[in-house]
Amino acid sequence: MKRLFIPIILLLISLPIIAQKKERKGEFYFSWGYNKEWYTPSNLNISQPELNNNYTLQNTILVDHPGWDEGLFTKALSIPQYNYRFGYFFNKEKGLAFEINFDHTKALVQNNQMVHLVGKLNGVPKDIYYPFSKDVPEDQQNYYYLNNGANFLLFNIVKRTHFNGFSSNSFKLDGLSKLGVGPLIPHVENKLFGQANISKFQFGGWNIGAEYTIRGTIKKSLYLEFGGKLDYASYSNLNVYKGTAKQNFGTAELILSFGYTFPMGAFKTL
To answer: Which whole-number Å values give the CA distances from 187 to 85, 104, 163, 260, in the listed order?
Structure first.
């Protein structure tokens, strides 16, 4: 009997330790999706010292080019306006995360609009309206596209809120508030008074953005996310023929994404 007594006592002492649950301290996630934008009117400032041009196109109307509404699966996934997110919850208890947030957006000066030009053109002061169009002979074309991307990159701080009343063992509903700042990486393509630039990607200024998304997670891993975002972008030193352009505009954006999340980091004992 004494021989059995000591092993039983040792087993009882060790049971709480065996029963302790371990969990990763962090949580990693990534997503891919598509977006739709609306832009504020924008003043487009053009400086071409060699041509003696320094003028502003006032209150130009900007439009996006979603692309996903033209047959999403008939072209490369990266041609339409897309977005991706990489994030890490470094404090799951408080719902705090750091996120890399990228939106491939397209901002085009709307074709066939009358624009108001104020400033100096060929050394002569001007205050005129003229048609801004690509639907004319080549030497008369005027267009200005961030068509391969206005490209907002943000480094966000994220705060997650659980909606426990809408969650279960197999489904979780969360709200994510995000705020960040980062660089702009536009692809600039334009032709002004028949003179085209060399189209290229470039560093083009800075933007700040705030976003709120609703995330539904299934089986603790797969999720669908729908969100709204406000962004303010300030572009400078953008490439035009023998000169540079600058402009500022605000953006309202809707985003739909699919993602995957999983535990990551060191273990902690619960």
So the answer is: 20, 10, 40, 30
Please state the pTM of the whole predicted model: 0.88
Q: What is the mean pLDDT of residues 153-175?
A: 94
154 close to 180: Cβ distance less than 8 angstroms: yes
Type of residue at 178:
K
Examine the pLDDT at 269 and tell me if it is beyond 70. Answer: no
pLDDT at 19 over 70: no
Tokens found for residue 58: 């006032």
Q: CA 175 to CA 173: how far, in whole Å?
A: 7
Q: List, in order of start, the domains of the chain with CATH numbers.
A: 23-269 (2.40.160.20)
Which structure tokens are listed for 35? 């977006």
Read off the tokens for 6: 């000591």
Q: How far is 172 from 220, CA to CA, in rounded Å? A: 7
